[in-house]
Amino acid sequence: MTRQRLSLLTPLALLGLLMGLADISHGSAGEDEDYYMQELLTRDQYNKVQMLEKPMASIPDRHEHPSQNPAKKVPKGKAESNRQTDKTTADTKSVKTANKKAEKNKKSSLKTANSISEEERRYNSIKEECPPMGLETLKIDDFQLHASTTKRYGLGAHRGRLNIQAGLYEDDLYDGAWCAGRDDPLQWFEVDARRLTKFTGVITQGRSSLWSSDWVTSYKVMVSNDSHTWITLKNGSEDLIFRGNREKEIPVQNIFPVPVVARYIRVNPRSWFNSGNICMRVEILGCPMPDPNNYYHRRNEVITTDDLDFRHHSYKEMRQLMKVVNEMCPNITRIYNIGKSYSGLKLYAIEISDNPGEHEVGEPEFRYTAGSHGNEVLGRELLLLLMQFMCLEYLSGNQRIRHLVEETRIHLLPSVNPDGYEKAFEVGSELSGWSLGRWSNDGIDIHHNFPDLNSILWEAEAKKWIPRKMFNHHVPIPEWYQTKNASVAVETRALIAWMEKMPFVLGGNLQGGELVVTFPYDKTRSQWVTREQTPTPDDHVFRWLAFSYASTHRLMTDANQRVCHTEDFAKEDGTINGASWHTAAGSMNDFSFLHTNCFELSMYVGCDKFPHESELPEEWENNRESLLVFMEQVHRGIKGVVRDVQGRGIANAIISVEGISHDIRTAADGDYWRLLNPGEYRVTARAEGYSFTSKKCEVGYEMGATRCDFIIGRTNLSRIKEIMEKFNKQPIKLPVRQLQARRSRERRLGT
């Protein structure tokens, strides 16, 4: 296609964004530096700089600064001086020419400023912003990304995706950006949209690395229809120079003054951090032009038929949506809160059941939680969509949903960390970076803020205290953890109280940033080992539960799915033992397994922690079936009631399965649920003051737990104690054999 035809598709831009100077002097990150905290600190510093420079940000830059040429170094003093001028003296051919232009520039400066403000007002009203094309979400595949040169394969164009994360070590196949093979202004990063696209903006980051500091401080943008003839975005007769990054993690967005239509787009770095190299992570904002004959578009298109509220919700909007669901389905829903966040926001949950508000004997309780990391937003929205979906489908008579609601008590807690979410929500889906809003308001990672019960159990096992001095389940919380001075988030305390109150059987917490399901243990058993397979006694059950979600997800087990960051989880069927990925003490999953009856897993539901609103329908389709299938697994295994001979349920009775060194306990009414894979098991029920009894219970392959009830009688000693206490006397503290011998002797003597 000719240059003339391209010019018709590319209107001349009348505005530009001011180029930032590359004067930032951040050094390399230290080995012991907390990467997440580094971003928070630099973001705070960055925001202060932006506030100071905000008046300049809207003025178009007419010329390139000499610092864009890596061969020329600008003294710091001169750079400061240039920042305060009109920046119209760069690229001069001689001192004499510059002097001649100086007076003219002074005379026209006021007129130029006035005309710019008028143009800004005119074009701000017609600026149009499109959603991300999908570099971060992987909708843009590796074959659509190209670059002028590459430093090495691990820093190739396929790694130039917004928010992509690097491995712990350099020089591997999974580094954290595209890095050019040479540092000069001739380098470029290219995206092939594979169809005519209306491009409206670019978002950039620096290189994700613990050891290097690399980012681009300014760049040009070029477009093409044939990848041979390129048109640079203009500001009048001058090339537009866009401001880049001031550090490596905080995304910077530039919206084009006027949208441009083309198939290919290039980002051409012009200046970069003076102690680093040309490295970028990029997202392109663009709207595909209508083209029903486009093969690639038809192949990748995912359409949902569910009429749901596909958008991001603020805290107030979330609360309102839950209220709407409750009003639509008042007979099967109930809204309640489990506590408050650090800033006082209530942690709302919704219950879905045919008898909301009460525990029914024999009905298992299930929970989904999301948003323990406030910036991992997709899980939050999926639970809001799930509650809408279940309400609507129940009303429409969907038998699968009706059976699930009538046979299960379901709890959905969409936002464990609303404080963190509000921070990320305020900035927006593409600009929140990788960690803004991750922690609670007092700086705590809620998901890993639970007591480390693994160490307590493993120490007891090593000392052979189990089962004489300590049980292999319901490990008690240490006293120090319950003190007021302990570093425990109020959200964590609320979760623990909720987990202890409700007899949950199965739970899933929705995370983001990856495509994988993890299961306990999350902490390695060997000390000082960061990655090690550490299975629980119920490893086979956990593996099945993880696979039930991953295998029904549209992407998790897809062998053709590109890795999100550094790990290819598809090789493991989209599942992994948490400790073999990375060790983490005090996780919610380990605590739930060791302190309660609940089997808890983590679902990492998407590469993009905070996807654009336009991606929500497709993400819902990716996860909808998985969310339902996993809930149905609560009905796998055995269930029953432990009663005494009078038919009364016995609370806190212990249910043991032969060959599995992890027991569970009955709920307040004596009912229990034990998740098991298909097979034949010898199960024993025991309780304090009662004799134990055992029986064989068989678990089939069909859905639905096998009924396995127990009746146990009181021991003689417990009956005597009860009688003595009834008559206000001290119970006889004699061994059973001595007591029986004494009774026999008394009978012989006739007394």
TrEMBL record:
Domain Peptidase M14: 311-634
PROSITE patterns documented for this protein: CARBOXYPEPT_ZN_1, FA58C_2, FA58C_3, PEPTIDASE_M14
Key words of the record: Carboxypeptidase, Disulfide bond, Glycoprotein, Hydrolase, Protease, Secreted, Signal
Molecular function terms from GO: metallocarboxypeptidase activity; zinc ion binding
SMART domains for this protein: FA58C, Zn_pept
Listed CDD domains: FA58C (cd00057), M14_CPX_like (cd03869), Peptidase_M14NE-CP-C_like (cd11308)
Cellular localization per UniProt: Secreted
Protein name, UniProt field: Inactive carboxypeptidase-like protein X2
Source organism of this protein record: Larimichthys crocea (Large yellow croaker)
